[in-house]
Amino acid sequence: MGLKTIADGREERRRLHHEADVVVVGAGVFGCAMAFSMARQGRSVLLLEKSLAEPNRIVGELLQPGGVSALQKLGLGDCLEGIDSVVVKGYDVIYYGKEVIIPYPADAGETLGKGKEFENEKSGRPEGRSFHHGRFITQLRKACSSQPNITIVETEVTNVITSTYRPQVLGVKSRTTNPSTEEKEEDYYFGQLTIIADGYASKFRKQYIKRTPVVKSKFYAFELIDCPLPAANYGTVVLGDAAPILLYQIGTHETRCLIDIPENTPTASIAAGGVRAHIRNVVLPSLPFQVQPCFERALEDGKMRSMPNSWLPPSVQQESGMVILGDAMNMRHPLTGGGMTVAFNDVVLLSALISPAKIPSLSDTSAVQKAMREFHWQRKRLSSTINILAQALYSLFAADDRQLKALQKGCFRYFQQGGNCVDVPVGLLGGIIRQPLALFYHFYAVALLSVWLVMVDIMGGLTGAWKLPWAAIEGAAVFYKACVVIFPFIFSEIKR
User: Fold this and answer.
1) Fewer CB within 10 A of the terminal residue: the chain, N end or C end?
2) Looking at residue 167, what is its pLDDT?
3) Which among 302, 262, 263 has a CA at the least distance from the CA of 280?
């Protein structure tokens, strides 16, 4: 039997009988990449999505260099082209008007030494990309539709189908619009393995994952038109009296502004005039002067959207016949833009662990479960680094007490030192350097510098030596706060 005949037969089984090797729920970042990768390995894939219209989201717009590298490994690098994407060279951090530019390090890949995982197809410094999220997703879906081993179906998945004989997921139940009647009808899709990747608002998470997302703030978003940024091709982070503000270009003319507002912010309360009053009275004055006119126009235009900032530590997936992945399984604060980088690298790793060479048939449940245990621990070199860094940095950048403010100041002064004080931290943030111990080292270097700055501020010099006990107490409080910040996130990554 020829290869074309086999392919045609498998396509017919997907189209008519709704059967495949893999059923992927969710044609977003993770779902599309996973479907594409498995199809290229020769698996038959059903990719199900509630709506195939171009999505319109305010996050998932910045891909770090480590994510660009993973996308290229998957054969999806072309999806960044033709969507007016913008090259990102690093970060511009502005702290109470003072500025430090932090480019991605030129030799970050080399610091990994033998067996490095980061690869940059272009010579020179690594580059990230920013873009309109919907345009990027459309490109990923087009790539999937070009694969003969993938059938994409617009259908709303409502539940999983389990075996009546043993605890095994066989596929999913859904509701599909009948084109003749325009009515939604029950449908069923079956696969040896079902991959749930239905995003941050997953309807299946509560049923299969014990952990629940923690939300302590929201991003309020504006789209600025023809806005001059302080440093072109650099993501701008503004730190001041308010929680962090992010600015980055997503197109030739469009710039995204994300404003973090923690829960129970007094200046954003209804009594104080609400979120818009907070943005006008607190956020607007803290922005770089060249940004303020564009921001004011966007504020007057009234087109403001919001999205919760969630934290969800990862879990080991041990269900028979099903795994939950992507944002449905693991989320971190989007401050560092690491979500898609984690997702694409997860796809690279998982595709290798469950490839046909290692697991010929995905109906081999024990082999798949073993691979998922390996996946859970192997992914941590990158995912734990980005998860912990995102949560720890947010704690510092959204400082709301004296000790956190001291750590925030120490972090900025650390960046001002240059060299490894910026190269390694931004390499970790960009998914370029995958060494959790390097994160631990630099976090505590910041903590010790913060302690020193606090003690110097209190003592003021040798004449203030009599204040040493007070300075030591304040310094110890800052160091203790640093431990309180980072250790819960470290422990959350160690738990199964």
Assistant:
1) N
2) 87
3) 302
Distances (CA, A) of 462 to 70, 211, 286, 459: 53, 52, 36, 7
| pTM (predicted TM-score) | 0.94
Is the separation of the CB atoms in 276 and 259 below 8 Å?
no
For residue 103, the cross-strand partners are: 90
Mean pLDDT across 43-60:
95
User: Which residues, 6+ apart, have CB-to-CB distance to 169 below 8 Å?
Assistant: 160, 161, 162, 163, 194, 319, 320, 321, 322
d(CA 419, CA 157): 50
CA 142 to CA 286: how far, in whole Å? 41
In angstroms, the Cα distances linking 317 to 171, 366, 368, 381 are 16, 12, 10, 18
193 phi and psi angles, rounded to 5 deg? -135, 130
Yes or no: say if 133 and 334 are a contact pair by the CB < 8 Å rule: no
pLDDT per position as a tens digit, 91-112: 999 999 999 999 999 865 444 4
246, 282, 287, 402 from 97: Cα distances, Å: 15, 14, 9, 20
pLDDT digits (tens, 9 = 90+) for 159-173: 999 988 888 999 999
* Letter string b/e over residues 405-440, b meaning 16 or more CB atoms within 10 A of that residue's CB: bbbbbbbbbbbeeeeebbbbbbbbbbbbbbbbebbe
The rounded distance, in Å, linking the Cα atoms of 193 and 21 is: 7
CA angle at 379 for the pair 378 and 385, rounded to the nearest 5°: 120
Predicted local distance difference test score (pLDDT) of residue 5: 57
Q: How confident is the model at residue 120 (pLDDT cuts 50, 70, 90)?
A: low
162: enclosing H helix or E strand: strand 156-162
Compute the chain's Rg from CA coordinates: 24
Q: Which of 444, 474, 400, 477 is nearest to 240 (CA)?
A: 400
Task: Report whether pLDDT(3) > 80.
Answer: no
pLDDT of the residue at 115: 38
